[in-house]
Design goal:
Layout lengths: L11 E2 L1 H8 L3 H9 L7 E4 L2 E5 H12 L21 H12 L1
Antiparallel strand pairs: 1-3, 2-3
């Protein structure tokens, strides 16, 4: 179903459709959106939200065809990752020892 909140005819996509395309968690998408690194979420009703397909498509294209190696995840940086988290170091050491 084609639905537009601004009359442009641009399709609205919901989280279930966006999630497999972007490969990020809801929290990561929210944090990227707050930093202006992801298209803004649009309110569709009192309890429903979605994105314009054209904006998601442009974001995907930018990450696919970006200035780096072409890997869509190259330009995505970890959000609020602790720099000296001992749990991450222990996990890494266990993987290296195997």
């Amino acid at each position: 179903m084609e639905f537009s909140i601004d009359g442009s005819g641009d399709r609205i996509v919901r989280w279930a459709e966006v999630r497999p395309l972007v490969g990020l968690s809801r929290t990561a998408v929210w944090k990227y959106e707050k930093r202006g690194l992801f298209p803004p979420l649009r309110r569709l009703g009192p309890n429903s939200f979605g994105w314009f397909w054209s904006e998601i498509e442009a974001w995907l294209r930018m990450h696919r065809d970006g200035p780096s190696s072409g890997d869509p995840n190259d330009s995505i940086q970890p959000i609020d990752a602790p720099s000296n988290d001992k749990r991450n170091l222990l996990t890494f050491e266990r993987q290296v020892d195997k």
